[in-house]
TrEMBL record:
This is PEGA domain-containing protein. Residues 372-384 have a biased composition (Pro residues). Residues 369-400 are annotated as: Disordered. Pfam families: PEGA. Residues 1-18 form the signal peptide. InterPro entries: PEGA, TPR-like_helical_dom_sf. Residues 182-224 form the PEGA domain. It comes from Stigmatella erecta. Keywords: Signal.
Length: 400
């Protein structure tokens, strides 16, 4: 009995020692290199790779703590708009203007959360009314211009509350029609991302939009990772503005993601990866790209020991588009990581392209700004038709 207990203690000690010596490894979300890849090309393949790492002896998968669901990021801006409306009713125009300036700043920061520009257009229209009340006609005209550009073809609800303001909106609208239009150029990393402008879907980036009315415009793009990028861009009359679509976020993870999405690994991206690995406290950091091949998908990945800043290229893994054969092939990759650690793969010289593939089609598509017909004027209400013939008047009653 004593011998059995000693054997168990030795076995437990050996197991604990093996777990303690396991290499800590983390995986950065894999970046798809084209907008036509489904979620399998990035998030799902990342999960499959993490699952194989979790089940590989000698490796200990480290994952960041789960993030709490973000609060309603537009709530502060909406609250400021309500405060501005209340102050305007009290004729506190300076206070209303201040509250609205904060609201518009919040909307600009969180523009990607706006499904369309109507809410923001109403905020600019309210600012215009407040500015007109203070005699700041030039600033007010610019605010009306922004409101009309953000929600083309839509009547501003505030204009219906004041004949004078409605006349001003009509005057600005007529002036805008006489101005030369501008253009807007979209590029993206990865390429092929579909863009919407002012709620209307355009072609995939890179794309140039001609005939864009002057003023502010809201753009949005959904990346292959499922993330949404978006923002506001101002187009000047007769000039071209440019928007570069990149994975959203801040910090080292965003720097690394933007580089990989553009099929690029350079010193700045490696420095970001090293900083990210140190913040997670790992021995190995795995990152890479997913691209389309004739047979399906290809995973081009790297491993980095954060203190060395010397990434090594892991063997390319080819997979079918549905990831049906992913298990054995990824298992071979994780087994090599467990056996060789930071010495896995081959050394690389920077800068380098993660995926050896044909150059993507970067022909610039040309489209015209999607015009929106103005809303029809409301029909004049008419009296309903009688449901039956009127009653015949009675003869006067004659008393005897």
């Amino acid at each position: 009995m004593t011998r059995l207990v000693l054997c168990l203690l030795l076995l437990l000690g050996a197991t604990a020692g093996a777990q303690g010596s396991a290499r800590r490894v983390a995986v950065v979300p894999l970046q798809a290199l084209s907008g036509d890849l489904t979620s399998r090309g990035g998030p799902r393949l990342t999960e499959r790779l993490m699952s194989e790492l979790r089940g590989t002896g000698g490796l200990r998968l480290i994952t960041p703590p789960p993030e709490e669901p973000p609060p309603d990021q537009l709530a502060p801006a909406r609250a400021q708009v309500k405060e501005a409306e209340a102050r305007r009713q009290q004729r506190d125009f300076a206070g209303a203007e201040s509250a609205l300036a904060q609201a518009l700043e919040g909307y600009t920061t969180q523009a990607a959360s706006l499904p369309h520009g109507q809410e923001l257009a109403d905020a600019h229209a309210l600012r215009a009314a407040i500015l007109y009340a203070q005699g700041k006609d030039e600033e007010a005209t610019r605010a009306v211009t922004s409101a009309l550009a953000l929600a083309p073809g839509r009547a501003l609800p505030l204009a219906a509350t004041s004949p004078l303001f409605a006349h001003t909106v009509g005057r600005v609208q007529a002036a805008l029609r006489e101005q030369p239009r501008g253009s807007l150029r979209f590029t993206s990393a990865p390429t092929g991302v579909t863009v919407t402008l002012d709620g209307k879907r355009l072609e995939s980036a890179p794309v140039r939009v001609a005939g864009v009315p002057p003023g502010l415009h809201l753009w949005r793009a959904e990346l292959p990772s499922g993330e949404v990028a978006g923002g506001l861009v101002e187009v000047s009359s007769g000039q071209e503005a440019a928007v570069a679509i990149r994975p959203p976020g801040e910090g080292p993870s965003a720097v690394l993601a933007a580089a990989l999405a553009g099929n690029r690994l350079d010193t700045a991206a490696v420095d970001a990866a090293a900083e990210l690995g140190r913040s997670l406290g790992v021995d190995l950091l795995v990152f890479g790209t997913v691209s389309r091949t004739e047979e399906g998908l290809a995973l081009d990945s790297f491993v980095l020991a954060p203190d060395t800043r010397a990434p090594r290229r892991l063997p390319r893994v080819t997979l079918d588009a549905e990831l049906l054969d992913a298990g054995p092939r990824l298992r071979s990759l994780t087994g090599a990581l467990a056996a060789q650690g930071a010495a896995s793969g081959e050394a690389v010289r920077l800068p380098t392209a993660p995926a050896a593939q044909e150059a993507p089609d970067t022909r610039l598509l040309q489209v015209t700004y999607p015009e929106v017909a103005p809303p029809p004027a409301p029909a004049t209400p008419t009296a309903p038709a009688p449901s039956r013939a009127p009653l015949t008047p009675r003869k006067p009653l004659i008393r005897p």
